[in-house]
Write the structure tokens for this entry.
Amino acid sequence: MATALLTVLLLTAATLACATEIVGRVVAVADGDTITVLDAEKKQHKIRLAGIDAPEKYQPFAHRSSENLSALTFKKQATLDCYKTDPLKRKVCRVSVGGKDVALAQVQAGLAWHYKQYEKEQKPSERAAYASAEAEARASGIGLWKQERPVAPWDFRRHGVK
């Protein structure tokens, strides 16, 4: 029992030690789920928004998704809760601007998918909010959900469609 408790405490401490908070100004928007933030020390951070996947460059609604993310973030102060680095060396972060969850706003606008492959990395309340937002956007037929059969970005990337 003591060993199990110690293991849980060490894992929790390791997870918390990996989490980083960054506060900075959004200086670039690459696409519907990637931004660049300049911190107070003038260091740039390439950020992948946690919990979502937006349309790829050659997919319908890619430009609208990027425009919406830009309207939400560009030249604004953002607070980032970063907890891992992806294979492209981007920090994966929860991003808020003015107290608003930017990734959730993308899903609510129908301009990103809730990235269910990584939902276990989300807090239960986030997971529920993102799933609900996607369901509502689908039911309302807004954004990319206007399409008859939208192709998820992970399927688009897997099949190399352009």
